[in-house]
Amino acid sequence: MSFETLGLSAELIRAVSDNGYTKPTPIQQQAIPLILEGRDLMGGAQTGTGKTAGFTLPLLQRLVDNPHSEKGRRPVRALILTPTRELAAQVHESVQTYGRHLHLKSAVIFGGVSINPQKQKLIKGVDIVVATPGRLLDHVSQRSINLSKIDILVLDEADRMLDMGFIHDIRKVLKLVPQKKQTLLFSATFSDDIKSLANGLLNSPALIEVARQNAATDTVSQVVHPVDKKRKRELLSALIGGNEWQQVLVFTRTKHGANRLAEQLGKDGITAAAIHGNKSQGARTRALTDFKSGKIRVLVATDIAARGLDIDQLPHVVNFELPNVAEDYVHRIGRTGRAGNEGEAMSLVCVDELKLLKDIERLIKKEIPSVTFEGYEPDPSIKPEPIQNGRGGNQRRGRKPSAKKSNAARGGNRSNQAKRSNNQNHSRSRSGNR
Q1: Dihedrals φ, ψ of 312, to 5°?
Q2: What does the domain layout of the chain look like in residue ranges?
Q3: Crossing angle for the helix pair 85-98 and 51-65, nearest 10 degrees?
Q4: Which of 107, 79, 86 is nearest to 169 (CA)?
Q5: CA-CA distance, 283 to 415, in Å (whole number)?
Q6: Residues 27, 68: contact at Cβ < 8 Å?
Q7: Nearest to 56 by CA among 84, 86, 97, 85
Q8: CATH 3.30.1490.270 for domain 3-209
C-alpha cells in the first residue's frame, strides 16, 4: 500500500515524499481512511509507530476539504492536546512539515516561555492549535483563543495526560469545545481511566491497535545488570566509556537525581546534560539540540520530560533507576528501536528495585535476561529499602566490562508510601509542563 491509495491530496503526498516516506506504517494505513471518513477514533499505539502522521495528515486533509466560510479572523478549527512541551513542539513540527504546501496556519502553545508572542499569533488567526492543557486554559482565561468553532479534537498520549493529573483541565477544555465534532484519542495503554474518558467523549469510535497492549518493541534488545545502588554511576560510566557509546538516553526517577547524575558523568569526562520539568524551556531545547548533534553524549531525563522526544536512530537507552510505574518502562525503551532500527535497552537494578522489575516483567509478559559484570556483583548482605521518591536480548559480545550471567533471586518490596509519592509527584509535575 502507498500513500497515494489512502485518499490524501497531491499537496500532502508531495510533503510526505519530500520527507522520504513512500509506504505508510500500519497505524497510518488503518487510521487515515477512518479519520478522512469523519469517524471518531480510539487508537492504541506505542511510540515510534508513525502515529503522529497518522492523525496529522488526515486532519490537514479534512480542514482543506472543509474550508471556513466566515469573514474576519480565522477560527481555530483543530485542537491537538499533548501532555508535555516537547511532544507539543514535535507534533507542531509535523503539522508544519506536512502542511507546507497548504494554505493553513498553525500555532503551538505551552508553558515555560512568554505567553505574549503566543497571544499575538492566536489573535491574528490560526486554523490549528497544538497545546498543553494548562497553557491552553491560560489563553482561554485571557481571551486570546476561542474554542467554540473546533471541528477536530485530538488527545495525544491520553494515558500520560491522565498520569500527570491533567484530567480536570481536560474536562474544562471539553466544556469549551462544541459537542458536535470529530474526536481522536491516542494512548499507548488502555487503562480503565482511559476507557472511562473515551466512553464519555467519543461517539461510536473505531478502535485500532497496531501492537499488543503494553508490548515492548521487538526491535529493542533488553537486559538487566544487577548492581548495588552506590555503584550504578561507576558502572554506567564504565559502559559508556568502555564501549565508546556516543549517544545514550539515561532515565532517572527524579529531577534532582537527573541533575546529580549529569554532573557526575561530567566529572568522569563524559559530556552530559539533564532535561526535566524544572529546567527552562530554553535549557531543555538546548540540551536536546546538543544531544541530537553529538555535542553531548548523554541526555539524562525524567519520564515526563522525555515524553515526546523523537531522536532518529537512538542506539542506547539506560534505566539508571527503574520506574515505579511499569508502563513507563515500555515508554522509556520505546525511545530506541524506532522506525525499524535496532536498539539496546539496559536497566541497572539494585536490590531495592527487584519488585519493580517483577512488575515490569509481568507487564511485558517475559523475563528480561540478567547479566552481572565481574567486579560489580551486588553485595548480598544489603537489604532492600523502600523507594520513596519519583515515579514510583542477551549481552552482546565484545561489551566491556566482561560479564557473567546471573540468576540472582529477585524479590523486594515497594511500599504504599512510594505509590502515594508517585501520585503526588504527578500532581506537582503538572504545573511544570503547562
Answers
A1: -60, 130
A2: 3-209, 220-432
A3: 50
A4: 79
A5: 35
A6: no
A7: 97
A8: no
**Residue 374: burial class (beta carbons within 10 Å; 0-12, 13-18, 19+):** exposed
- pLDDT score of 47: 64
Are the folds of 3-209 and 220-432 the same? yes
| SS3 letters across 302-333 | CHHHHCCCCCCCCCEEEECCCCCCHHHHHHHH
Per the rule left: phi > 0, alpha: psi between -120 and 50, beta: everything else, 294 is: left
Q: What is the pLDDT of residues 194-219, one digit of tens each?
A: 888 888 889 999 999 875 445 555 67
DSSP 396: P
What is the layout of strands, in order, in the sheet containing 206-209? 106-109, 128-131, 78-81, 152-155, 182-187, 41-44, 206-209
Cell triple for residue 77? 478549527
In whole angstroms, what separates CA 183 from the centre of its chain?
A: 21
Give the CA distances from residue 383 to residues 253, 358, 367, 418, in Å, rounded to whole numbers and listed in that order: 21, 17, 23, 17
Of 304, 345, 344, the residue nearest 328 (C-alpha): 304
Long-range Cβ pairs for the range 255-263 (8 Å, 24+): 255/302, 257/320, 257/321, 257/389, 257/390, 258/300, 258/301, 258/302, 261/233, 261/236, 261/300, 261/320, 262/298, 262/300
Query: Cell numbers 485542537 correspond to what residue?
Result: 79
pTM above 0.85, yes or no: no
Distance CA 280, CA 49 (A): 29
Cα–Cα dist 123/144, whole Å? 6
Residue for cell digits 491574528?
A: 124
Mark residue 398 as left, alpha or beta (left: phi above 0; alpha: psi -120 to 50; beta: remaining): left
CATH architecture assigned to 220-432: 3-Layer(aba) Sandwich (3.40)
CA dihedral for 22, 151, 92, 170, sign (positive or negative): negative
Among the residue ranges 19-33, 117-131, 208-222, 308-322, the one predicted with the least confidence is 208-222
Identify the CA nearest to 96 among candidates 129, 120, 73.
Answer: 129
User: 71 is written with which cell numbers?
Assistant: 469573514
Peptide bond connecting 26 to the previous residue in cis, omega within 30 degrees of 0: no
Q: Taking Cα atoms as reference points, which of 357, 366, 356, 360 lies closest to residue 392?
A: 356
Q: Cα–Cα–Cα angle for 285, 291, 293, nearest 5°?
A: 100
Q: Chain-wide mean pLDDT for the chain?
A: 84
Give yes or no for a contact between 86 and 157, defined as CB atoms under 8 angstroms apart: no
> Hey, which of 64-68, 142-146, 388-392 has the most confident mean pLDDT?
142-146
